[in-house]
Amino acid sequence: MTSQTPLQIAIVPDSFKGSARASEVAGAISAGFIAAAQSKGRDIEVTAVPFADGGEGTLEALIDAWGTEAVPVDTTDAIGRPVRSRLGLSADGKIAVVEAAEAAGLPQVSDVPRRPLVATTYGLGALVVKALDLGVQQIILCLGGSATTDGGTGLLSALGAKFLDADGNELAPGGGPQNNLASIDVSGLDARAAGIKWQIACDVTNPLLGATGAAATFGPQKGASKEDVAYLDAGLGRLADVLEADTGRALREQSGMGAAGGLALSLGSYFDVDLVPGWELVAEVLDAHRILGGADLVITGEGRLDSQSLHGKVVSGVLQASGEGADVIVIAGSVSLDDETLAQSGILSAYSIAPGPATLAELSADTLKLVERTAFSVARTYLR
Fold first, then answer.
1. Which pLDDT score, from 0 to 100, does residue 279 have?
2. Does domain 7-51+287-382 have CATH number 3.40.50.10350?
């Protein structure tokens, strides 16, 4: 490469969950690289775009790409308390992005003992209703970070459905009461929801039920005991039985149906929804191949680089979308992959932002400063 040809660098990190948004990380990496290039007299052109995998942080990434602001919405959290949440809108107002974590998320209920049997997606449904009120033609629903295992019954209730027991009484919210489900009244279901395009971003492949299902796999992190897991799994099974009898749609074995406590089950039983790998959906909206295809060097990052990073996450997607011959470097909060695994995956090198032994709290407090410092050091080495 001649000195007259600027090095094309694409900076496309995920968020460092709990510490820094993807846009902040992208800015810190950019600052480090630009400072290093100036110190070495190198000419570089930097394109910095926050990325996401369809889970938490996707709303931020998409509104950054669209150049819009989040729309505030008053709704309720997973245990019914009032909460100020958000949804995202595309620049033309036709697409809304809604995150499960915004109204049914674990962080919102971290201040109280977890209540896995009654946690509900009703507040998430209120976000969907707001999006419909705004006249959108498409909703991107991002799964991940939820505190719920209700099969999406709360969301559908917010849209007007009623879940009834054998006496015709409406069930209490949550996955536990679904064991008493006898019928579903959809006479009041919001017809607008059938007239839009639904895309559900999902980064897991778990089915709804069983040892690898929603309750068994994700229930414990939501506070479910062994007994709770069995009860929630049975409740989801009962819900699936009633939905299948009502709609003829058998979704329980579909890959990804166990994500976010089976959130897509009720929605997908009554509406046509596309369950899409989260990275693929985000990459399409952001036009990842255009951003990455012409780069000589691609810098990505996330809070923790481990084996999961290579399957359905931002790092794996970046590796797939990067142009042939491009170098890919990862900057992460921690790195647990060995050099052989990095090489086999196509990663040139990976760097932890930790300057030495440090607690998670210490790293979180100085994340952006450490990211910028690491990026400067990486750039000084790469631009030699």
1. 87
2. yes
